[in-house]
Specification:
- This protein is α/β, with parallel strands linked by helices.
- It contains 11 helices and 12 strands.
- The strands form 3 sheets. The protein has an 8-stranded parallel beta barrel, surrounded by 5 helices. Strands 1-2 form a two-stranded antiparallel sheet. The chain has a two-stranded antiparallel sheet with strand order 6-7.
- Helix 4 links the parallel strand 8 (120-125) and strand 9 (150-156).
- The two termini are 33 Å apart.
Length: 327
């Protein structure tokens, strides 16, 4: 396992972050196996949220795992505030936007209660609402940090101008400030946001992180919902419609072919190349993974052994025709 350092968090922060959106109340044995394998591999960061898991069960199941494993003091827990409502039928309701200071507090206490934690290591705003003054949100996050309920805070799915506005406000007020940015970042380019209000990184945002290493990048959907797993999705209409709508473009399939070619040369899987594309950066970066069995987890861990050159990164992005290796 490899690690980065995140401001406000004392222990090293593993570059692979275990996501919990896949948690299911009928799969606690699977959760035990996966989490145990993740810890054994050196992973120590768990990403959770109020509406994660089937039936919004993730926080409750995380508590049960923490109780069984006794691992709370060994792990870094990320939780979030401000996600739009998801009803028990799994329907998202973005019309019920929940980005307000009082809802930060509500979600925080809800999460602490249901996970059984005394504090969260990192607390993030899950969405943004530009109509809400950024200072009101930062004031509330800093208040909870000073109370000891969170160690550090960041944002997820915020556009860069608002990130910069929040950073400037915190600096002016003498706050700890943002320590992490959590957009989606992957080798695949999206045709539209996967969910209302989600943010997907482009090259301008990569360059921003290169200039601001004090803000760690924690990417979600780093493997583009399995798009780069060879043979998983075909252009024959069999793939889920939302996958087709978001990822099925000629450019992404070209990126897939290039990942496959580079994977064959390096003796790895194409999905490993896609994850390495995210992790091989000159700034602090971690990737949220959603592996559901030990084979998938081991594949993710193996991706950290892959070191991609700038020429290879450019090749994967279709910015050059060859991967830069001398022939």
């Amino acid at each position: 396992m490899e690690y980065i350092q995140v401001k406000g968090i004392e222990r090293p922060f593993s570059k692979l972050v275990m996501g919990t959106a896949w948690f299911h109340p009928d799969q606690e044995d699977v959760i035990d196996e996966m989490m145990g394998a993740y810890i054994e591999a050196g992973g120590n960061v768990i990403d959770c949220g109020r509406y994660y898991g089937v039936g919004a069960c993730a926080e409750k199941l995380l508590k049960r795992w923490l109780d069984r494993s006794g691992c709370r003091d060994q792990v870094i827990i990320i939780d979030k505030a401000g996600h739009p409502i998801i009803t028990p039928d799994e329907e998202h309701h973005p019309q019920y936007w929940r980005v307000k200071p009082d809802l930060i507090t509500e979600d925080l206490y809800y999460g602490l209660f249901h996970t059984g934690c005394d504090y969260f290591d990192l607390y993030e705003m899950h969405r943004d609402d530009p109509s809400v003054p950024v200072g009101e949100l930062m004031d509330r996050l800093e208040e909870h940090r000073k109370e000891g309920l969170i160690k550090a805070y960041g944002v997820s799915n915020w556009e860069l101008p608002r990130v910069e506005e929040a950073m400037a406000y915190c600096e002016k007020k003498g706050y700890q400030g943002l320590v992490a940015n959590n957009p989606s970042f992957s080798l695949a380019k999206v045709t539209a946001p996967r969910r209302p209000g989600t943010v997907h990184m482009d090259e301008d945002q990569v360059k921003w992180h290169e200039k601001h290493p004090e803000v760690a990048l924690i990417s979600w959907a780093s493997q583009a919902a399995g798009f780069f797993v060879e043979g998983l999705y075909r252009r024959d209409g069999s793939a889920p419609q939302w996958i087709q709508d978001v990822y099925f473009t000629d450019e992404n399939f070209e990126r897939m072919e290039r990942a496959k070619k580079l994977a064959r040369k390096k003796g790895v899987e194409s999905v490993n190349i896609a994850l390495a594309y995210v992790l091989c950066r000159d700034f602090p970066v971690a990737a949220v993974i959603g592996s559901r069995n030990t084979k998938e987890l081991n594949s993710c861990v193996g991706a950290m052994d892959i070191k991609l050159t700038q020429a290879e990164l450019d090749y994967l992005c279709c910015r050059r025709e060859d991967d830069g290796e001398s022939r």
